[in-house]
Write a structure and sequence with these properties.
The protein has 19 helices and no strands. The chain has one domain: Growth Hormone, Chain: A, CATH 1.20.1250.20. With about 400 residues, it is an all-alpha fold. It is globular and about 55 Å long. Helix 11 packs across helix 18, helix 15 runs antiparallel to helix 19 and helix 17 packs antiparallel against helix 18.
Length: about 400
């Protein structure tokens, strides 16, 4: 079994993104069905994202200190919480306050432990586990795609509690699997562990001083993901404006997710030919094009074309940014680096949820999309400034 590290790590990714599909992609569908307005949905997701922005670097800082909490334990206990939260929501169907509170916590925790799952790959690789990160992450997206394809129709036919049942099943398997997914102990990894214990990671202000280009890059990332989160979180409203429904939501999310697989699987080979910096700029431009296409969409064809750009935007950004952070961070800052990337993504979601829910209720879909396009364009410019002019002033290895 020890030889199948990629397969075992892939299963973690697949199960995570099955639940990511149910909790994140169908958040608006679930909450709207429970009687929440677009504005209330936006507030719920914004609160979740704010808590995630705080929680991700906080948990990562504890892990980087190497005293008691590990990436594996964080993934396992977080998955257990999602399991218990979903079980609770099955029985709490009408009271909006507990539904709001539990869903916000579930949404938050799932975002919080994503960087730890990514960092686990690099941690296990250093311990001698041969893991193809791009392939594993790409198959995770395939898990998201397949779930979305069937979930849209299932929700339409059987109601939104189907979302909870799928989450319960996925997280039950996840908890059991991660419990047995233990890193092999070697002299090298024990030595590295001792070094990390003795050398605490950088605090926030020290981190900013140490990696100024990285902080600017994160601002650009947040702007790009403002548009990305806008599309994902309010996709059902966009699709309804184009004449679709929950079934088309399933098809649209399936399309974008399944197209991620080949790109992520091959990204390791691509990075041998093209630098991470070039690929990140290419990704940022693709986020802009993906959003801009929706301005001109008049039917679901436009939506599907927009979703196809996922393979150049998100599918490139996620693995390349993970390698980028791992390469430029000092050993005791690596988990924090992954966490800050996810915090930037989440921060984009905070502003997207707060602003876009209001825009949607007050002005409609097209105005919301125009704002998303403008913010994303600013993000492209910031990313270029961060990883070309600014990064030249610092050594590649911090």
């Amino acid at each position: 079994m020890k030889k199948f590290w990629t397969l075992r790590y892939t299963l973690i990714n697949v199960l995570y993104f099955v639940a990511f599909c149910t909790i994140h992609a169908y958040a608006a569908v679930f909450l709207l069905d429970k009687g929440f307005t677009n504005t209330q949905v936006g507030i719920a997701l914004a609160i979740s994202n704010i808590l995630s922005v705080i929680g991700q670097p906080l948990v990562a800082g504890i892990i980087d200190r190497g005293k008691f909490l590990t990436n594996r334990l964080t993934v396992m206990f977080s998955s257990l919480f999602l399991l218990l939260g979903s079980l609770t929501l099955v029985f709490v169907n009408t009271e909006k306050v507990p539904i709001f509170a539990i869903f916000v916590l579930m949404y938050t925790i799932q975002f919080v432990y994503m960087p730890m799952m990514i960092a686990m790959n690099f941690e296990y690789a250093k311990a001698g586990c041969n893991i193809n990160f791009g392939l594993a992450r790409g198959l995770g997206s395939a898990g998201f795609a397949v779930t979305s394809f069937f979930l849209g129709k299932a929700v339409e036919n059987y109601g939104t509690n189907v979302i909870l049942y799928v989450t319960i099943a996925a997280m039950t398997v996840m908890v059991i699997h991660v419990f047995f997914f233990k890193k092999p102990k070697t002299e090298e990894t024990e030595e590295v562990s001792e070094i990390i214990k003795e050398t605490q990671g950088s605090g926030f202000f020290a981190f900013v001083k140490k990696y100024p280009f990285f902080i600017v890059f994160l601002i650009g990332t947040a702007c790009c993901f403002f548009a990305h989160n806008m599309i994902n979180d309010f996709m059902i409203q966009i699709i309804r404006s184009l004449g679709g429904n929950e079934t088309q939501l399933g098809y649209a999310t399936f399309l974008q997710a399944i197209l991620e697989l080949p790109v992520m699987a091959l990204i390791g080979y691509v990075l041998k030919k093209i630098s991470e910096r070039h690929m990140l700029v290419f990704s940022a431009v693709s986020f802009f094009l993906k959003t801009a296409i929706l301005i001109f969409a008049t039917s679901m064809i436009g939506m599907y074309v927009s979703q196809s750009f996922q393979m150049f935007a998100y599918a490139v950004f996620i693995p390349v940014a993970a390698y980028f952070a791992d390469n430029v961070m000092a050993e005791n800052d690596k988990v924090k680096g992954q966490a800050f990337i996810n915090s930037a993504i989440t921060l984009g979601g905070v502003f997207s949820n707060l602003i876009c829910g209001k825009l949607l209720d007050a002005f409609g879909v097209k105005t919301m999309i125009l704002v998303g396009v403008a913010v994303c364009l600013v993000g492209v410019g910031i990313v270029v400034i961060a990883i070309y002019p600014m990064m030249k002033k610092v050594p590649k290895k911090a």
